[in-house]
Batch of 2 targets.
Target 1
Amino acid sequence: MNKKDFIHLQQVTKDDVGKILQKAKDFHRGTIKVPLFFEQKPVLSTFFLENSTRTKLSFQKAAMDLGLHVLPFEIGSSSINKSETIEDSLRCIEEMGVRLCVIRCKEEELLSELAAKTSMSIISGGEGTKSHPSQALLDAATMLNHFENLKGLKLSIVGDCKHSRVAHSHMDLAKLMGIDLRFCGPDHFLSDEQALAKISVEEALESSDIVMMLRIQFERHQNSFDTKDYLREFGLDELKLKNLNPSCKIMHPGPFNIGNEITRPVVESSQSLIWEQVKMSIPTRMAIINDCLEGVL
Ligand code: CP
């Protein structure tokens, strides 16, 4: 693995993923002493050009737990609103001594371009519809709290898969780790590659180890569409929960839209791992930051 940056799962090996997930497990169980970087106190900045709650705050918390300083970049009050370029804004924080920068952006391929121009470690906080690798890894860390292995695990992703960066990173992860990945949703919510692994909602509910629900990514759609029957046809509500295999777990990367793709009783049901995913974001992102720091310190 390129130790400096963490941008796509296409850049990592099965072995790299295994090491990050093992380290996440160790951080989660408290078997590694933290903070690890109290003496050097490197600085991490969160540079989010799109909205976020979970990713931004959990990277900040993970960095603090490792003993790093955190310098949040707030786009709303930044000089990007006075026409400064992203490149010059990043150069500013690099000159201030930031060593790692977690970036979320709309443009695909931007992170690799930025990483080539800076000595800072560039960590993806989500890139367009293309990828959200740290989310896929924290989902995997959550799965491993409940299942022995990722290999052969039947994971059905339901909803707006085509516009979901999380779904795309799960496709990368599935190829690396041998997860049996299937997709469910209206045809216009599936890419050509996803359509090849399409199953019905009924089949997903009956035969999956995990059903992962996705929010409709309204902000990435060009045309508006009717969502009146979406919950009944493709969402997960109390009625469908009754037909769900009792051993099947429910996941959702968040944010969820109650009443659109999921209902509150489903989020809070005993089969739901949705809040556990948020909890696992901290040790997983600690493991990712720890790896990248080895490349820049
Ligand atoms: N799952 C996820 O990326 O959530 P946020 O948009 O809140 O960071």
Target 2
Amino acid sequence: MNRYSMRKYIIANWKMSMGKGEALDFAKALGDNLENMEHVQGVICPSFPLIGSLELPPSVALGAQNCSAFEAGAYTGEVSASLLGEMGCEYVIVGHSERRTLFGETSEDVRNKAMQVLACYMTPVVCIGESLEMYESGETKAYLKDQLEACLPDQNFILAYEPIWAIGTGRVPTLEEIEETQAFLKEVLVRHGLGETPVLYGGSVKGENAKDILALPSVDGVLVGGASLKIGSFLKIMRSVV
Ligand code: PGA
């Protein structure tokens, strides 16, 4: 049994959407309402300034949405992986499609960030995903393989497959498509000796569809944006793991 195989991951990516008051209320409500869940690893990834203030229940760890590709030094505005580790983070999302498309991050940057996270004994959550154009022209698998191989860390990471066209749109691939793509990604990982890597799905996961997605054999968890902002829907997703 490997270190990951027992649990499913529910990772909340709050993006730039939560203020301080809402975030503290959310954390309090989570502590008051969430039962202990040994088979689920929740992770909350708030904006950087909130990282030191959230008190989370035992089934929920702290994560960050990004970190610097550099170790330390004169990089104004950047946040190092080591500081995130000191502040209590255990996971760091790297290479989210918004970072790649809006802020020009390359797969090389993403790999460097993942290596910084690993060097600080945290787990990188490496995101990949195809555009609508690629999906519609049937290039998804070839594109994802190249993208994954270009940013592949060499150990202990989590992969999150997030079709760009499913993020924040309410449009979700069919369950068969999710399973086929995730199983393909697992094969690619096996070929690199990384077969134990958990593979998460992300993109318009909601309380209503989480149970079916999480029941797929190749889905080891979900990365959730919009539906992680409300305590009710986040709890529903946490409780969708059977
Ligand atoms: P969404 O975002 O759940 O709002 O689609 C997912 C993500 O960007 O990680």
